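Researcher: Please translate sequence to structure tokens.
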Amino acid sequence: MSDTYVVKERADQLVEAAGRLFAAGVMSHSGHANLSARLDGERLLLTPGFVQGLRPEQLATVSFDGQVLEGELQSVSAEIIAMHSAVYRARPQVGALIHTHSPSATAFAVAHRPLPCRTEPMLRFGQAEDVPVVPWGPRGSDVSVRGIADVLERRPTTSAVLLANHGLLVFGPDSAAAAHLVVAIEESAEAEIAAAVIGGAVDFPPGAQEAVRAAIAKATA
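Model: Translation complete:
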């Protein structure tokens, strides 16, 4: 598979994922987000500083150490290359990252409260545990990046983190999977907040994850 083909494929997938997020209504008022896709062990594709109306040719190719190899980035995106690279280095199986300011998930980030896994979509789309909170650090700073790396080391099976006083960071095998999980997490955060009004959310019964996996396996057999 040629490098040109891989870049085009990943770019198309990122554009489709960005559109899915807006269609699902999980974006903040500003529409702020950044998305990336791994190209190999040293490079990634990154959105240029905006995602609404994104076109494949607007994506930039950057190295994990922050060099822009092709395309252009606004400073707002250049600041977060280290954040994306840290996840790719820590998780070789991760193929794509999405960072949003999804309102309900961000409420948990602002409150420094982990988001419990209490909805079935979170189980189905790869987050069968609480979404942990990364301590606050200035955007793109060494403090922030080290905080993310530390949480990933301590929580080796999480597919998402909440960035304290900031927003949500989700990662998965590809852009579509990451987008599905963003939607599931935002819906779950909305449900948690709504459930608090009527007495509070309730945990799954023991064995729920195994039951969901069995149901998925049966449906796809």
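Researcher: Any highlights?
Model: The mean pLDDT is 93.
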